[in-house]
Amino acid sequence: MNLFLRMVKVMLAALMGSQLDVMGRSVLTFRVWPNDLDINMHMNNGRYLTIMDLGRADLMIRCGLAGIILKRRWMPVMGSGTVRFRRSLSPFQKFRLHTRIL
């Protein structure tokens, strides 16, 4: 599935989903599609970070921050990130993304 389609799906689900408080946890389920794979036939390292962006967008919308962000023209960015790759994701494998503010 194209990343644009994933983004639209996440945004629509967040708008229709339940509200979270700011310290809540967003949990999204995705599947590894062939365009997510690298030459070794597992999910590309860069794609992990891109999918994490979708988790942050979901969290911001469900916490009610989307209106403020759009009104003030803020561009929320991640200040720092550490990724530990514990195991690879295979083609068509389902996985869950948990996002929260630390």
Question: What are the defining features of this structure?
Answer:
102 residues; alpha+beta; two-stranded antiparallel ribbon; 38% helix
User: Roughly how many Å apart are the termini?
Assistant: 30 Å
What is the helix content? 25-40%
User: Mean pLDDT score, rounded?
Assistant: 89
Strand content: 5-15%
- What is the subunit arrangement here? single chain
Overall structural class, as computed from helix and strand content, comes to: alpha+beta
Provide the gyration radius in Å. 14 Å
Show unreliable segments: none
**Whole-number total of structural domains:** 1
Total number of strands:
2
Main sheet makeup: 2 strands, antiparallel
Tally of separate helices: 3
Query: What is the string of helix and strand elements?
Result: HEHHE
As laid out across the biggest beta sheet, the strand order is: 1-2
Coarse shape: globular
Short description:
With 102 residues, this protein is α+β, with helices and mostly antiparallel strands. The chain contains three helices and two strands, in the order αβααβ.
Describe, in plain words, how this protein is organized in 3D.
By secondary structure, this protein is of the alpha+beta class. It has three helices and two strands, in the order αβααβ. The model has no long low-confidence stretch (mean pLDDT 89).
List the helices and strands and how they pair.
Blueprint lengths: L2 H14 L8 E7 L13 H18 L3 H7 L21 E7 L2
Antiparallel strand pairs: 1-2
